[in-house]
Batch of 2 targets.
Target 1
Amino acid sequence: MCISMVVKFFLLASLLWGGAFFTQVSCFGFNFTSISDDSNLILSNNSSVFQAIQVTPDVGSLPMTNKSGRAFYNRRFRLWKKRGVNAVFNSSFTLHIKNQTATAGEGLAFVLTDSTGVPENSDGQWLSIVNATTNGTSQANIVAIEFDTRKSYSQDLDGNHVGLDINSIYSIKQVSLNSSGVKLSTGTIVTVHVQYDGKNITVSVGHNAENLDLVLSYPIDLSEFLPQKVFVGFTASTSIYTQTNCVKSWEFNGSDFDEGLKFWVWIVVAAAVVVLLSSGVAFYFYRKKRNNTEDVEDTYPSIEEQIQSTTQAPRKFFPGKHPHHRCQSKGLLSCGLPCLHLSMGRIILLPEANLLHFQIFLPDKIILYGEELKGGQQCLPIDYASDKSNLILSNNSGVFLEDSLQVTADVGSLPITNKSGRAFYNRPFRLWKKRGVNAVFNSSFTLNIKNQTATAGEGLAFVLTDNTDVQENSYGQWLGIVNATTNGTSQANIVAIEFDTRKSYSQDLDGNHVGLDINSIYSIKQVSLNSSGVKLSTGTIVTVHVQYDGKNITVSVGHNAENLDLVLSYPIDLSEFLPQKVFVGFTASTSIYTQTNCVKSWEFNGSDFDEGLKFWGWIVVAAAVVLSGEAPPPQVPIERPSFVWPAMPPSFSGSDHSLTGSQLTPFSDISAR
C-alpha cells in the first residue's frame, strides 16, 4: 500500500518536472498599429495622444518651443535575470518628424529607463534623456537610441543621425543617415526596427518596412547600465528650433523573466509537496524500524557540551558590533598601517599560547624610488624599485632603480614615439561585494611628466581594470586605456583618471587637464589644471590623491602633498562598470609628440573583501585546533583577536628575526602541538 503511494508520488513528480521542460515561457509584448487612446501609456505633461503619440506638443495653440516630453508603455519590462543574463527584445515603430522652424530641433529617442518622470530642464539638446546635472552619471539609469535632427554640440556628426546613448547625451556610437537616403525631419514616415539579442543591439532604418538598412550595431551588456525592471518608451525635446515628434505606430516583443519565474514558483511548490509526502512515507518506515531496536546514542552526552563545560574550551565569537568588525585588510604600497593594524605581510599568534602558528600574506610594500618615506610609521623590509616581482609590466614599461616606474620607456636608446604601456600591482583587488556595495580606497602617487618634443604627448592615467594587457594600437590619443575598437564599449572594463597633456580631440578642454573616463577616452567629466597652477608636462613633481568612498570619487592635485587642491569630484557606482576583481595601476602613451611618463612613488590603501574572508577563515582554524590537555589557551576577546608585532629593524637594509627584544620568529608552516 505504502510502496504503491510512493510510486504514485514519484510519478507525479516526474510529470511535473517533465512538464516544466515543455512549457513555453510567456512573452512581454504589445502592438499599437494605430494609436488612438492613452489607456496603456504613461504620458508626461507635454505629451498627448492624437492619432499618434505626440511626445512634445504639435497641435492646437500649444507653444512648441523649449519643450521636453516622455511617453512610456505602462507596464515594466524585466530586462535581466542576473548580471550578464539579459532578456531579448525587438521593437518596430514609425516616426513622423517635421521641422516647424527653418532648422529642425532637437530630436526624439527610443529609451529604456526606470524613471518615467521628465528630468528638469531637459529641453533643447538634452532630448529629455538627461539634463546638465545627470548627464554622464549612473543616476540617470537610461539607455537611448537617439534620432537627432540638429548638430547641437561639436561631437555630433550632423543634424541627421542615429546615436546610442548610455546615461549621457554624448553618444558612444553615432551614424549619419545621409548615406541611407533617410532625412528625419522632412515629415515623411520613417520606419525603425531596434533589436537586442542579449549581447548586441542593432538599429535598422528606412522608408519601407520591407527594406530597412542596418545603420548601427553595437555590443552591449544592458545589465551593466540598467536596473532589472525598466519602462520602454520615447523621449523628445524642442528648443528655439522646433519640430513635431510623433510616433505613429509601435510594436514591442520581448522575453520577460517575470512570467518564467511565476511558472517556476508553481513547479517548485508542487515538487515540494511531492518531496514532503515522500519524506513522510520514508520517515514512517524509519520510525517503525527504529522502535524495534535499542537507541544506544541516547546514552552518550553531547561531545560539544562536554567541551564547552571545561575551562579550556575556546570562547565563541560574539556577533560583530565592536571596533573594526567590518574592517578588512588593506594592501599597502607604501609605509603605513592597514585597518587591522598590520605593518607587514604576516600575522603571528603569540608563541606563549602554544596553539597554532600561521601566516596571512598581504601585499608586500613597495616604494618605487627606493627611499624611506619621512614622517610615517616605520615599515618592515620592503622591496625596492629594482625588484619587479610586485608589478605587472607591459613590454614598453620598466622599473629603474635610479629613478621611477616608467609607464612608457624613456631611457637609453629605446624609441619613445607611438608607444603605449601599462603597469599594475600584481594582485587583483576585490572592488565590490555585490552590486552597489563597493570597497573604499585611496591612492597617492607622484608623477614626473616632461615633454620631449615641443608639444607634449599624450598623457598618463591611473586606472582600475580586469585586464593588464596593453590594447593593440592604444598609443597616441588613446593613452593606453582603450583603442578604436574597444572605445565606448563595455568590453573595455576600465575606469581611468586621465592626466592629459595634449588636446587631441575637439571635446578636450585643453592640453593640461584631468578627466574621468569610463570605458572610453571621451571623459564624462574633465577639469583644466591651469587655474590650480599645475602644469603636468614641465618635469616638475606633481602629487595626486585619488579617493573613493564607495559612492563618490575625488581627485586632488598639487606640487605639495600637504596642500593639494580638490579638482574633480563625481558620483559613481563603480560596480556598474567594473567586474568584482580589478588590477590597479597606470597606463600611458606617446605619439609623434612625446614625453616621459614616470611614477616616482605610489601608495594604495583599500578595503579588500577577499582578505577579510581569508583572515576569518584562519581565525576559525585557530579556534578549532585548541586541544585538551595543552597549556591553557589565551582568553579570546569578543572582537577580533589582538596581536603583538615585532620590533622594527634599525634600517631597511636587513631584518633581525631573532627572539631578542620583542621580535617573534615568523613561521612558514601551519602546525599545532
Target 2
Amino acid sequence: MDDTNGHEAGQDDTALRRARVQHLLQEAQSLLLEAGARSASVYLERAMACIDVDVADDPTQIAVAAAIMPGESALRRAMGGALTIVGTLLARNDIVALDEFGRLLALFGDVSAVEDPAMGSIIDGWSATIRHAAGEVERPMNA
C-alpha cells in the first residue's frame, strides 16, 4: 500500500465517521424536538453546522466556525435576554404574543441562514430563548 492509497483510505474513514456523527446528531435532535426541547436542539444544530467546516482547508471559515460553536458569548446571551424583554412588553400590550414573536424571529433566522449560516444560528438561539420564556410565562399559575 503506497502513501496515496493510505491517505485516501484515511480520508474515506474520516468521511464515514463524519457521516455517522451527522446521523447520530440528527437522530438526537429529532428526539429533542419530539420532547419539546427546542432550546437544546439549537446546540445540536450548531454542532452539525461545524462538522464539515475544516478551517485548515479554508481559513475564511474560521470566523463562521467560531460563530456557530455551542458556547455563546455574554453579548449574544445579553441580546437574547433583551429581545425576550422586548417580546414580553409587546405581549403585555397585546401587540404580539411572546410565542408568536419567537416564531417570527425563528423564521427570520431561517431566512438569514441561507446567506449567513452563523447569523441564522445566532438568531435561532435567540428565538429558542424567547419561546422557552413564552412557555414559562404563558403556563397557568397553578400548573
